[in-house]
Amino acid sequence: MINIASTRLQSLSQPKLNRCEHQPRSSYTLVPLGALKFETTSRLMSLSLPRIRKESHVKTEFSRLAYDPTNSCVFNKSALRAQCSDHITSLARPKFDYDGYQFAYPVQREISKGAKSATASERLTKLATPRIKKDNHVREF
After folding, report:
1. How confident is the model over 42-92, as pLDDT tens digits?
2. For the whole model, what pTM was predicted?
3. What's the per-residue H, E or C state across the chain?
């Protein structure tokens, strides 16, 4: 008895066509026609110009270039008479370093004898070794 495949099975057995191979692309890009015919409008030209302001956004009385401590407009009179509280004064004082404080280690310094003769304990060696999992998907070559 000879089994004959159905037409559906025969169509499924055929490989699909690779569309990239059958439609070669050009290395040149196509510029849309609207982009080629584009002309700037007066509205776009006006938006592209820098905005000219009559007054600067920094007032001269508050500007650091035009600083005048005698000017009464710069500081409020009550602000000139203000006194800090004791707590604010204590917070404003810089901290001092304690005796024997070293700012930075020199680049070349001696290595201590303890560091030279140190050996790892059994517990530290056990913690340093990586665990090997049974379901590890990494292949060894």
Report:
1. 999 988 888 776 655 545 555 555 555 555 455 677 877 888 899 999 998
2. 0.21
3. CCCCCCHHHHHHHCCCCCHHHHCCCCCCCCCCHHHHCCCCCHHHHHHHCCCCCCCCCCCCCCCCCCCCCCCCCCCCHHHHCCCCCHHHHHHHCCCCCCCCCCCCCCCCCCCCHHHHCCCCCHHHHHHHCCCCCCCCCCCCC
